[in-house]
Amino acid sequence: MTILRRMRVITLSFFNLIIIQQAGADVPVLLFVSDTEQGSLEAPLLDTDVKISINGITARVKVNQKFKNTTDQWQEATYMFPLPENAAVDHLKLIIGDRIVEGEIQEKQQAKKTYIAAKQAGKKASLLEQQRPNIFTTKVANIAPGEEIIVRIEYQQEVSYDKGIFELRFPSVVGPRYTPLHQISEGLITIGEDGFSQTLSGEHILISPVIPPESQRKNVLTIAADINAGIELASLESRYHDIIKQKKSQGHWATKLGMEDVIADRDFVLTWQLKLGQEPKAAFFQNSDGEDHYALMMLVPGNEVFKEVTRLPKETVFVIDTSGSMGGASIRQAKQAMALAVKRLPKGDYFNIIEFDSRYTTLYPRSVAVTESTQNEALTFVNALVADGGTEMSAALHKALDNQRSGSRVRQVIFLTDGAIGNEHDLFSIIKDKIGKSRLFTVGIGSAPNSFFMKKAAEYGRGTFTYIGNVEEVSEKMQNLFSKLSAPVLTNLQVDWPEDSQVEMWPRKIPDLYQGEPLIIKAKLKAPKGAVSISGQTRANLWKTSLNFGEQKNHDGIPQLWARQKISSLLDSVYEGADADAVKRDITALAIKHHLVSKYTSLVAVDKTTARPIEEELTSKEVPQHHPKGWLHKRTLAYPKTALRDDLNIIIGLSLVMFSGFLLWKRRRMKV
After folding, report:
1. 512-525 pLDDT, tens per residue?
2. Could you tell me which residues are beta bridge partners of residue 152?
């Protein structure tokens, strides 16, 4: 790539970011440039109201995004926001006063054209697009001066369950993401047709303006949840927010945030536990849609299945993220978790530690035996870690998954990070190619981790995901992880369906289970009769159980959850050699059938009435968001301190942007 071409990429995207290559540096520097305070004030105000209805192991969620134009100009608002990575988004409504405009599902490019045509014609419209399975953007066109417009998004999701605890998480903020910018010098970052910078894989680089801490502006969040467990609860709590609880009946509770003006700067996590002895062994839900029959099964093998066997020696490789985005509370949580893990290593095992930012460093050239001496060296190493630099994760992953020796040792890689990266798919490819006999366990750190990356990485690595949201949870969460790692695994799981069922089951390959983990299966069948049987093998015992179709009640939302799982599996199949164009066609058809937002489909709502006079100018503004709680912030830069060493970089970056603009202007003059 020539310097001129490289500069052109920079110029076209400089309003969002500055990219510079320092002399002698291994990687370019990425600075996320935020709006000025004045720019933030001009953007539409945003309030988010969330209503959650939980029945059993499924939840129906309605998210109302209220945009208020406080200026004297007509505005278009763009807002990037997170949702749970397993959310099946199936409805969009544009609410204008008393009028409600229903959204339609369309192929992504067609939906974009529909929205642009409505915007240019002066009609009120909204477009909902997926940028990642857990990150979406809302666009709202033609908000009149002083007007409020509500965009309602609805989705279905399953509730997570682990070691007796149900958990539902609603993320409220997207932390700045790092994209390895060596890709620029290799020509792997381009400008898409929509003006967004994107990688060769077509994934947009995720950038959003940030609200400075001293700003009076607030993105206010309200949440209310209705939990109908059907069985008496032993506990109900929110891990990171104060809540008000009200018991409505046996096993039925209503909750809401306990404070007004809660800002959207961290994940909302609600957990509940059933009364002792009432833990589920199985949950089975079904739904009929014409000739198709859909089933959702959750099975929890009892503790008696995982009987103690001779403990196998282990090799544990810890990988800890020390990049700038881990600054503040996150690095303290990570270091405390690491120290606790090192102290618990049993004598006779082997271990190593890899820390990474713009580069990686290993404690030892290769894994060493656990002794008092090596543990002390490790604790000293961990105590000296600081958060700074870029999130160059790929080299650290390669190193962690190398040197897999044959033998009897079980090899476990424990990865502590906030996952603040934008090149998830590149990293998934590394894990799938190199996982070998290792198992990868991800530990999410901070108030708003990238749970899509963390969960999918653990899935590819045949491990599990653990989330630590604050320092007080480190001991509890790491203890649960250690218990899981020491428990035998239920492997070779097999599902036998009734004959002539014509089953399409997801996931196709059932993962291994650790003690306390549920087996969750979604399936589409034809006229199922009889029972489905499930079996698996521990190191010492054979386990088998069955569930009867005739005993199950009808439950809404199962087809959407099945379709969402199938879409995820189809995307995964591309890594295994499936034809990308064929996968795109299959996903598009499936998403349109089930009215789902996906990588290739979007929801668009257009009002029939023309609102803005054509002669009136329309200004476009990105709605800024808060930094995740605990993250560091600079006044003029909103970035995860990624690869930024000193303020001289700012001057160099601005100089390069101006110089690149001059070169582009000169080139255009020469063409004329």
Report:
1. 888 888 999 999 98
2. 64, 93
Q: How far apart are CA 587 and CA 567, in angstroms?
A: 6
Contact call for residues 424 and 201 (beta carbons, < 8 A): no
- The number of CA neighbours under 13 Å toward the Cβ of 103 is 34
Residues 483-499: tens digit of each pLDDT: 888 777 888 899 998 88
Residue of 368, 375, 379, 363 whose CA lies nearest to 315: 368
Report the range out of 357-371, 416-430, 496-510, 535-549 with the highest average pLDDT. 357-371
Token output for 572: 């995964």
Query: Which domains does the chain show, CATH number per domain?
Result: 37-273+597-622 (2.60.40), 281-306+490-593 (2.60.40.10), 314-486 (3.40.50.410)
Nearest alpha-carbon partner for 211 in 265, 134, 143, 132? 265
Of residues 554, 525, 589, the one with CA closest to residue 292: 525
Residues counted in the chain: 672
Element (H, E) at 486: helix 474-486
- Which residue type, as a one-letter code, is found at position 385? L
Of 126-130, 191-195, 586-590, 651-655, the poorest mean pLDDT is in 191-195
The Cα–Cα gap between 320 and 356 comes to: 7
Structure tokens at 339: 């120290």
| Closest residue by Cα to residue 166 from 256, 287, 253 | 253
Distance CA 176, CA 33 (A): 11
DSSP 43-55: SPEEEEEEEEEEE
**Measured distance CA(495)–CA(516) in Å, rounded:** 19
